[in-house]
Structures are given as C-alpha cells and as structure tokens.
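Q: A reviewer asked whether we had any structural model of the full assembly, not just the individual parts. We don't, so I'm hoping you can provide one. Inputs are below.
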Amino acid sequence: MRDYAVYPFPEVGAFVALTHVAATEQESDQLETLLSNCEEARDSLIPLLQEIQTQYHYLPEFALRRVASKLNISVTDVYQVATFYSCFSLEPVGKHVVQVCLGTACHVRGAPRVLDRMLRDLKLSAPGTTADMQFTVRSVRCVGCCGLAPVVRVDDNTHPNLTQAKVRGMLKRYQSKEACPADSADETADAEARINP
Ligand code: FES
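A: Here is a predicted structure for the entire assembly that you could use as a starting point for your response.
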C-alpha cells in the first residue's frame, strides 16, 4: 500500500489532498520516458497531462512539478490547466470511472435506486473510490442521452436503461476484464445509434 498525504502547493496557495509523497524509482523512469518524447514547448502541456493521467489514472504532484520544469513554465500554470479540465484528476481514481447520471430524466426513471445499488455492491457509503482502486463512482448531471434514461457511463461506455438488477452483472464484467468489455462496446454502439439514428 502506497503512502499518501496532504501535500501543499504553496505556489498557488492551495492544498491538494491525497497526492504521492514522492515518486518511486519506477514512476520517475516512466515519467522521464514520457517527457523525453515531448517538445519543450507550452503546447505540449495538455497532451502531456493527458498521457500522465492515462498512465497513473490521476496527476501526481511530483509529475506536475516535473512537467513545469521540463516545459519551463510555472507550477501555477500547470495546476490551473490540471484543475480546469474535468478529464484530469488530482486525486487517485480507480481503474474504471463510473458516472451515474442523476439529471432530471434519469432521476425520474430510477437513477437514485441504481446509484444506491451500485454503492452497496461496491461497499461504498458515498460516491468515491473503492479500497481496491478498481472503481471510482461519481454522480453527474445529464450525459446527453436522456432518451436512454437511466444512463450510467463506465469509462467511455454508455449503459442505457440501467436497472438495479443489471448493476451487479455490469460491474462484474468490468471486474473480470482488463479494459472495455465487448458487450459494453456493443451497448455503447447501440446507444449511439439510438441517439444519432
Ligand atoms: S438526464 Fe440523464 S442523460 Fe440526461
């Protein structure tokens, strides 16, 4: 189990919770490999952060500082970009990010019960990350396909018309496979076809 701690960012007058105290040797090597393939220009910032987010599933504090020094920009600038885009996270997130839509259409069609069931199955008392770092559950407002309500997004996959009874099976498919389960890809394609016939 890795050590985590509240770590200050004095440059921006903020405290960022739950970031690595320090990089391991392997993490440093991985980061240097990423950095060696990028141009030392500010334009490289967002693609670089995307690669780091993909690699670590969040943006560790040591990586933000190293990116700032590599691109010769301030930590404040890096932090502002890292906190502006919702695709970036400053806290460790699970291997799979589950977004349960609680927008109006999903809410009236049972989304709160789907969320309750999901939290119970994952042994979470509230939206957050499971102890085994497999899932991060978030509640969101409208993912743009209200006709398929209630909707849950897992990573890049859309699960339409979800019910409490389908939750466990859906989670199991992600638990047992490394990436996007084939049937979830089918569901996503099916959902997209129904949104854009
Ligand atoms: S309210 Fe859930 S997709 Fe719009």
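A: Points you may want to mention in the reply: The pocket of FE2/S2 (inorganic) cluster is lined by residues 101, 103-106, 142-146, 149, 151 (CB under 6 Å). The helical segments are 25-36, 45-56, 61-71, 75-84, 104-108, 111-121, 164-176, 182-195.
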